[in-house]
Structures are given as structure tokens and as C-alpha cells.
Amino acid sequence: MAIASIAVFEGPPPTYDEFLTALEGRLALVPRYRHKLRTVPWRIGAPVWVDDPAFDLRYHVRRTAVPAPGGGAELRQLMARIMAQRLDRDRPLWEYWFVEGLSEDRWALISKVHHCMVDGVSGTDLYRVLFDLTPEPSPPVADEWEPAAEPSSARLLAGAALDTALIPVREARALGSAVRHPRRLVGQTIGTARGARRLATALPPASPSSLSGPVGQQRRFTWLRADLDDVKRVKREFGGTVNDVILAAITSGFRALLLARGEVPDPTMVPSLVPVSVRAPGEEGIYENRVSALIAHLPVDVVDPVERLAAIHAQLDDLKQSNEADAGETLVALARFVPYPISSFATRLMMGVPQREIVTVTTNVPGPREPLYGLGRRLIQMIPYVPIATTVRTGVAIISYCQEITIGITGDYDTTGDLEVLARGIETGIAELVAATSPGAVAAVSAAPRAG
User: Fold this and answer.
1) What is residue 75's predicted lDDT score, i.e. its pLDDT?
2) What structural domains does the chain harbor?
3) Is 327 helix (H, G, I), strand (E, B) or coil?
4) pTM of this prediction?
5) What residues have CB less than 8 Å from 380, skipping those under 6 apart?
């Protein structure tokens, strides 16, 4: 459950020690990077963040190099190997990999952070903290960090007992707030109930296909690039959002993959988890996980690319109106009012159930619109990575940077040897939608009869 990205920079690369020094000068801006998790004895309380008294920056920042010729294939293989390794649970849950040996005088930084520390939005915002808006590096920030002593087991047990004892207090405060704002309570209750009902109806098992099934530990990884202006042109011509256009292209990719495997696409074959940020404006810099989700069925049965886009737009618009994401956020929030052993057991029980209702994950995170620099070198590409687990054999992550969109695709090693078919299918889907915006194509689409 680590999320990751690759930041590719123009060269020449700095030395490893230069990079360490620059990163050390920014660590005070990301306190969580020097925290580790401690488990409460007998798991009677939630794990807690504590300072790591043995924090060693050199342990977390690893130096590596890709073999010649140092192109995309070598970087993809390196990323897949790194993401197949489990983060050390006894240390802060992050790693940076300083990558040398890239062709065309480039170097890269692979960022790997556990999802419990950040979500996609806050993970992307970390780039703005660690890198600069100009080629001139920022001076290091003041840092007086001294690790606090680790809490004893007895202290952890006492804290967990106190937290459990305070559950009625939190419930009373929540009830008091609700009484003071009855209209808001009624609105939230109705919206959450509507979303929960919609979420429940979205959970029937997907149609059987090769896209879902057990996964192993090893991964495959690839990516493709698209022009943001092309995607925006499609959006202007046919309506919807940039995310709708990208999801329509991803749908084209899964349709191509199914057809290449000799399978007939149907409407319920590719339900996708679509993460949704629930951050309030201004909370992007809070480095923790604040995300809910929708479940969308990708219309892989629709042949025409423009009709696929229309189907995606209509479905996502309906999902947004249904309060499904609010229901998911509420279910997570309710855990604060339940003793930890109960909520933990329920979570583990759910994770043990085959996830037949979710076949893939498609997550879109807006990245910086302005160019960033690392030690004076321009960041020229950001490549996202999304984890997969249980029976989800593929995951798709999208990030925009300046005027480019990069789509990273994760696959299970043993069952997605044809991952490039999915990537090329997504490229074709974007190209078809862009071609449909030409004057002649638009006229033909407008004149074509529509199914009821």
C-alpha cells in the first residue's frame, strides 16, 4: 500500500551527498518523515506515531543506477522491482531512490511513501516543498529537531485506555454540534443515506474476466504521455471534465485489452474504484490520507469513443450527485466512535473478503502547473504509481504537470504480461477522441443517430 512517483530531471545529476544535504535542509517542513509507527500491545488501541530516535537519512535515501542504455524500459523495470518490496515497518514509512545512468543526460528521483502517511494530493504537494519554483535553490530551513523518547509499552496501553474512555465524550460533542445545527445534520444525514444506498447497489460482483483474480508480490509497470491541450480540446468539444476524457481513454484501453484476450466486453466487467479527495480548500499541505472513493463502471461495451465519453460523463455526474463519496467518508469517520479492536477487526475481515466488486483503480491527481527544479535542474516529467492488492490486477494513476499528462499503469507480474496492450489502447483512445474534434468528424458525430 505504498504510493509512488518518478520525478525525471534534466542533468547533469548532482552527487549523492549534494542531494542528501539539500533534502536534509527541507526535512523540518515534513515532520512525518521522522516519525515511525508503534503498535499498542495486544492491539487494544490504534498504532501511534512516535519520533524515530535512530532516524538515518542515508537509510531512507538509496542510490542506484539503471543499466545501459538507460531508457524508459530500464526505468520501468527498476520501478517495478522497487515497488514489489515491502517498506520496513520498524522505521518511518518512506524511501527515496536517487537514480543515475539515464540516457540524454538525465537523472531521476523515485518517491515511495506508505498510503497511511499521504494521499495523492498531499504526496504531489510534497514536490512543492522539496523542490523549488526557480533554478536558484532555496536556503535550508531552521531545524532544531531532537527525537523525543519512545513511549513505553505501559504508556501506550494507558493512552489506548484513555482514548477508549473518551469515546463517550467525542460522541457527546458530536451530538451537541448536531443539536446546535439541526438543518445541517438533516442535510448530511439525508445525503449520507442516499450515498450509502447508492454505494450498496454498486457492490454486486463484476462479470467474470481475466482482469480480476489473485495477485502475487511482483509487479509490472509502464506509462504513457498525453498533451493536456489535446485533452482540454476534447473536453470543450464534447463536454464533461478533463477527468472524464482521461477515464474514457482508459476505458478504451481496457476494451482493447479484453478484446486482445478474446473476451467480450460487457457493461459490468470493469467496475473501478475512483479515489476522491475530501480535503477542504487550503488543506493540501496536511500530509496525511484524506480520501474517499466512488465506484464507476467503465463502459467497455460501448464501441464508439465519443459515446464512451458521454457515458462516462453521465455516470460520474450521477455519482457526484448521489453523495457516494460522502457516505464513504462518513463510514471512515464513524471509526472514531468505536473501540479500536472492533474497527480493526472489521477492517481485517473486509480485507479478507475477495474484492469481486472492484476490478481496477483509476486515480487522477492534478500536479503543479508551473515547472519545478531540484538543485537547479528542471523537473521535466512526473510519472505516478498506484498500488494494487487483493484481486485487483491492474491500477491506473494519472498526473498532470505543466502541459503534460502522464498515465502510470501498475500490473501484477504473473497475470499482466500484456500490460503494454492496455497502454497502447489508452493512447489510441485519446487519439480517437482528439481526431473526433476535427470539423468533419464533429459534423458526422452530430448527424449520427443515438441509441435511446
Assistant:
1) 98
2) 2-141+150-155 (3.30.559.10), 182-367+384-447 (3.30.559.30)
3) helix
4) 0.84
5) 8, 9, 10, 106
Give CA–CA dist 347/168, Å, rounded: 22
Q: Which of 115, 181, 297, 313 is catalytic?
A: 115
Contacts of 424 (CB under 8 A, 6+ apart): 224, 253, 256
For residue 185, the model assigns a pLDDT of 43
Sites in the chain below the pLDDT cut of 50: 120-121, 179, 185-186, 188-190, 192-193, 195-196, 202, 278-280, 283-287, 289-290, 327, 353-355, 442-452
Check if 297 is active-site. no
Burial class (CB in 10 A: 0-12, 13-18, 19+), 348: exposed
Backbone CA torsion sign across 394, 84, 218, 38: negative
Q: Where are the alpha helices (DSSP H) in 298-418?
A: 305-321, 324-333, 340-351
Residues 6+ apart with CB under 8 A from 95: 60, 61, 62, 82, 87, 110, 112
Cell of 184: 445541517
CA–CA gap between residue 33 and residue 56 (Å, rounded):
11
Q: What is the pLDDT of residues 235-263, one digit of tens each?
A: 999 999 999 999 999 999 999 999 999 99
